[in-house]
Amino acid sequence: MSIRFSVISNSATYDLTPSVSNVDEGSQVTVALSTTGVQNGQALPYTIYGTGITSADYVGLSSLDGEFVVQGGAANVQLTISEDHITEGVEQFTLALSNGAAINVDINDTSIQEGYALSHNVSNLNEGQSVIFTLDTVGVPNGTSVPYTISGSGISASDFTSNSLTGNFVVNNNVATVTLTLSNDVALEGSESFVLALNNGLATATAVTVYDTSVPTVTLTPSVNNVDEGNQVTITLNVTNGTVPNGTVLPYTISGTGITAADFTGLASLTGSFTVNGGTASVVLTTSADSATEGSETFSLALDNGMASTGVIINDTSTAAPVDPYAGQVVFNVNAYGGTAVDTAPVSPLHTVTAYGTGNIVTDAPAGSAYPYSMYGQGTQQSPTRYFEVSFNSGDTTMGTGDFTMEAWIKVIAWPTSTSQIFGFFTSTSTYQYLSFSNTGSLSAATSNPGNTVETIPLNTWTHVTLMRKSGYGYLYINGHMTRDTIGLMSTNFGAYSKFYIGRQGTSTSGHSNNVYFHNVRVTKAARYKTSFTAPTEAFSATDPYWNNVVLLAHFDGTNGSTSFTDEKGMTLTPVGTAALSSTQSKFGGTSLYLAGSANRIDVSGHGTGFVFGTGDFTIECWVYRTATATYQGILLTGTYATNQIGVRLIGGKVQVYISGSTVLDGEIDLGLNTWRHIAVTRHNGTMTIFVDGQMDTAIYSAHNITSVSGTPTIGADRTYYLSGYIDELRVTKGVARYTSNFTPEVNY
């Protein structure tokens, strides 16, 4: 709407006329002034005003005041309305002369509000790929630069090839685009997200996810490629050709045929994780030492992300729970179980065990025992206060003259003042057989004493002790070592018995144990520890692991009838009489040494100190084929008789060992006639043993010092006693007992 005001002042008139009554933003309006009585060049001031009207509503105006300059009675003013983006509605302005003439013009609000919208062509992408961001605008002039900033957790400029987190859109026709390319690094970071936002705060794009396609080189290396059950293997993770941030957790899974969590100690499942620090990490796996025989198994440990894996072979070292071959011959096996002592034997009916005294069960046992308790025997020599009695059942049979084994684990807390009993059989009136120890720790047995042990029992240490009878001979063992000083003939016929005491000597008023712990007291009607070995099945050779200890090895190989003999270790073998090689009989190699009895032998020279065994270990062995009987038949004599030498001979067809002319050990096995028999004499830690065909014959403790170098050693003769028969594969080993009669005591019977 336009209002025209005309003013007549004296002789002058003023008339204002707008070219339009309303005008759009961005358009022009001309206001014409017509006058009369006004001189040319006269300036007539005006003012523009209106509600909300400012100079910014006009293009080029710094204020709302101006003037007309009259020429020829007229003048005009041209006003350009600003085309802003502010929605204001219709506004009216008034242009008025100072003399009161005025016009009104409406300004139509044609403003368009500026608008910004951001979008992208992908919502997720891999490292090395690009994303395009599009900015759509409304009312933004061409060429306008619109700044933006990129942000996100862990996002840095290096994540983009532009190496920058800022930039600008340049608008053209209300559209602008920016292309961002992700860096294809080798840093293992995991997936990350970022957002792009306009700095003016008018638009933010939705987040874009960047998948971590980095491929650093990751290796898994086991400390061993094969691991025995019960041992550990360490798997080490190393990162090369890239980085993995400290603290990164890399899960793994273990798999393999037959592999379960039970194959590893402490694992509840077959999953776990590495935590990387400094480009490395490790896990330690302990394989279970089970008793299941499974054969070797292979497990694989692989990272769940597929970046690396490795495999390890588990060697099956399982040993099935041992089956006692004498289970049916066990009389009883007394153990402390909880607060009492009971018979835990594998046979029935079980025996009643009565405990005397209080506090007789203690929490102490040999390492690895299935029973953590033991029985406590205590008291003075004359008055036992703690001991145990095993009552026999009506169906029990006597020991008679048969084999038996009495054994136990004991722990001596203090030495007795004199010999004290460990355990034994008794009747109501007499003692039949028991095992004792002295106040110095040596073992002894009664009745029919097999001798005292030279090895002693230590104080405050769990020790296994054994009294065994085999074929009428008694044997004493400490921790599996057979140790005593005389042959133990135990031929007594042990009749009926009614009691077995632990820590007490029957009804006697002396000889009672004091301060001794007992564990696994077992009696078996069999000689359990009869060590044997497989007799050689081929000729002896230089591949022998004890080759450097061999001092004599005669194969007796060659031509039938030859009298030339060779010792592989260099001694000289000289035949006497008709001693010669024979192909009639041979164990190995086609021939053997044939000796026709009287005056036939082999003399040995060049032996030096080869047969000087001192008090150490040795082994003398050969194959013998007897063709005739005789009271004495020599096998090997290492020097002059009765001068600290050792001799091995047959007496009545049984092996006998003598030193310095005195018998030390008699065998019990008859070699018979016309058959090859392997014989061996060994000494191991002082225990001398005779073996026949790999079976332990007899044994005894012998500390004899064999030092003789005098005289001439002989093969097949003992002074004037000669062998009738054949000898093959004669070997003497110094410093090594190839075959021993010791054993490893079990903790759990």
Q: If you had to describe this structure to a student in words, what would you say it looks like?
A:
It is a single chain. By secondary structure, the chain is mainly beta. The protein is built from no helices and 58 strands. It folds into 5 domains: 103 residues, Immunoglobulin-like (Sandwich), CATH 2.60.40.2030; 97 residues, Sandwich (Immunoglobulin-like), CATH 2.60.40; 96 residues, Macroglobulin (MG2) domain (Immunoglobulin-like), CATH 2.60.40; 198 residues, Jelly Rolls; 188 residues, Sandwich (Jelly Rolls), CATH 2.60.120. The chain is 0% helix and 46% strand. The protein has a 16-stranded antiparallel β-sheet that branches. Strands 42, 44, 45, 47, 52, 53, 54 and 58 form an 8-stranded antiparallel β-sheet that branches. Strand 33 and strand 34 form a beta hairpin. 37% of the residues are buried.
CATH architecture type of the largest domain: Sandwich
Work out the strand percent: over 45%
Shape: elongated
Count of separate DSSP helical elements:
0
Query: On the 0-100 scale, what is the average pLDDT?
Result: 86
**Total strands:** 58
Structural class: mainly beta
pLDDT < 50 runs, ≥5 residues: 1-8
Rounded to the nearest angstrom, the radius of gyration is 56 Å
User: What is the domain total for the residues?
Assistant: 5
Q: State the assembly state of the protein chains.
A: single chain
What composes the largest sheet? 16 strands, antiparallel
Distance between the termini: 121 Å
The top-level CATH class of the largest domain is: Mainly Beta
Which fold name corresponds to the CATH topology of the largest domain? Jelly Rolls
Helix share of residues? under 10%
